User: Fold this.
Amino acid sequence: MVGIDLLILLACRKVIILAVVLGVAALAGLASFVTPDVYTATTTIVPPVRNESAARSLAGQVEPFGSLLPASFSSTNPADPCIAMLTSRTIQDAIVKQFDLRHAYAVTSDEAARKKLRDRTEMLADKEGQVTVSVTDRDAGRAAMIANAFVEQLRSMYQNLSQAAATQRRRFYENQLIAERKALSDAELSLREAQEKTGLVQLDPQTQSIVETVANARAEMGIAEARLEAMRIYATPENPDLQRTEAEVTGLRTRLANLERSTEKLGEGNLEIPAWRLPQVELEYVRAARDLKNHEAIYEFLNKQTEAARLDEAQPGALVEVLDAAKVPDTRSGPHRLLVVLVSVMSAFLVCCLGIMTTDAIRCRKQQQAQPCVGTLIGDLGIANSETSFFPLAVSGAPLELCALLAALGLGILAFDFGWLSPAQAAAGTALFLCCLDFLAWRNFDQGRHPVFLFLCVLTLLQTGRALAYLFGDGAHPLRIAGIAPQPFDLTRTEGGTVLLCLALSALCIYGVCRWNYRSIAPPSEIPVVRYLPFLYLVFYATIPIQLSKNYSYYHFIQSHGGYLYFWTHHGDIISSVPLIVRAIVLINAPAFLAIFVFERRTKWLYLATISYFATTIFTLLIGFRSSAFVLILVLWYVAKVKSNKKSRLVGLVALALFLTIVGGLIQTIREDQEASLSNYVFAPLEFVRLEGDSIDVTAATVKYEKMLAPYGLSYLWYDLQDAFALRSVHDYVPGQRLPNDISVLLNPVAFARGRGDAGSYLAQMYLLGGVAGVVILSLLLGGGLHLLHRFSRDARTLFVVASIMPVIILMPRGQLLDWASDLLKTGISVAILWFGWLLYCTIMWLRGTPVLQDDAAGL
Assistant:
């Protein structure tokens, strides 16, 4: 009756609502038409690839010293340094000055002009590593010129940086060359003096060979030391090339020391041989010849490096290639007048309804009368004031909340469309919106005694984890696709807005359906099901050893074949490593445990069964599979709360979440490094939340590549129904069967072939089936399904079914849209096996003359 009462109330105030809505529509339309048109010009460039240094090319001729030269700057995504330069203050100041943006933007300072320029410029890196620069301006021509000017300024910056580095190298080598030229002259004079003093012009061939070996080693060390000093000019101590060169110099010193001290012919030390082995005159000659050869090699190397630096100084620097130059746009990119008017009208209607309901509820509260307070509201309609209170405050809570939430969402859409919110800020706002829904679900659903509470909490973590981390100081962009993609890339502003809108609408629709229809339920009675407990305990404890043996077999097989990723590359081999009869027997272990947890009231027996079951999951956790165990813990928490009338404590729920975070982080550490131990684990909840939020990559990639994936929308649903029964690995990949596999292949086929990939997202499949409208409609249906789960929790037998399928439903933010249906079929098979076993058990008990407990409280 709440819906009818609400319609009656709004009908009474139809004149006010109509006046407010029309007034807001007129103002919104006027504002949108008064707002000047804006145009967006776009240019696409290939990230600059640094030309090979001439110093490196020439140094390759002096082996093995070419490997000591520093490598060119590189990063995970070559577009990142390009975007960093484009957003630098140097380039922005040049753009502001070139186009006199202080005057164009009507600001009084360069800082304000730079801020407006940043707000009107969007720079994105795509999957292929290309960089797109989009500039929005009221003047279409100026937008195109600014976009092209960014490219020219980027070229100029690369040229300046390249020349500055080459000039610095040239100056260093020239100074070293001057010093080495003097040292070479001194060495030549020393050799001539030794020849004149001793009269020797040639050494014994064997001695000469050993001396040359030592001299070459010294020359190598000298060149390496020169290279090291050059690198220290521009490299930090943490630079891997610098550290590698330091290690090379240390190795050469050790080698030279060994040559000088371990060569039996030459004696110990720095060629200090006894007089009876080599005359003193020959020793002097050897030293002079060695020094001359050493300086000649160093001088030749420095001379080549100096010439190479001069060539580098003359080069044009990195090449910036333009794929698509910016052209003057023909059509405007904003404002979206129809969207502004529609959202304004909707927000005005919701705010007006919210005000009417609030004033009516306050009036009813003040009257404090049992009779309906409709006399002043609908008397003019002639409706009888009979038995039901019209619109008390307790009943109006759901409409008030939903109107307020819808109005807040509408205002957020307007703020994003007008550019008041950046995509990152909008993502953070969406995360806060979902956190607000989580709190309301806890508050309004009897401290979380509703499946939608757990669903929304998991949705918040898995789809907005990055945004939550961004709110708490993580600088990573929450909408950047960076999971398994070899080169992280960004969404356009429109694509990012679509992802966030789908996420917020889905959460609100799911919550709204459950909130509107919510009625508190009493704990289910255990009397009708207590007779099943002896049989369930028998089945459960009989299959525990088999379940433990099966899990250990999987663990041992996977660990002996490389670890966690082997599961995804050879799924069928792992499953077939355990006999079919074993897999069939343990199929009833989990349903038996859930039935015991739902039916049992005796605490000690409940604790014993729970500890026994989770003891069998240790090997599964050690492999790296954590989701199923964690979600089962949440489901058991829900079942325990439904069975109890005790008030839940938020502190206990926070403690449970903290425990799962710690264990999840530990499992992830072990999964990523098989040699890791407990000492390697670092408690980093923010990092854990950010990594769990990677599921938004699937939603974002689906929105970005909608046209490519949309033809497979129905095919994905068909194969979702087979997921609980089909054994698939990466080698069985077929396009169009599973959305996560298609996304993984699209982003990184190499990583997918090695067993890495993205999970799923029910939002992505909803969007493929009908866009934003499809997300709204299917989310309403999903909310209705969660409401039915709550209603079915009133009975112990149906609560068992609810607990069986809830793990898959809760994981839908990282799963498939119809995985729950597939799991329901699998659960039906398990329940059928249990029911057959129950009939067999009853038959045996009847033959033995032992009556089975009837539907009473016996045995409690």
User: Anything to note?
Assistant: The first helix runs from residue 2 to 12. The longest strand covers residues 39-49. The two ends are 41 Å apart (CA to CA). Confidence is low (pLDDT under 50) at residues 52-75, 262-278, 373-395, 854-860.
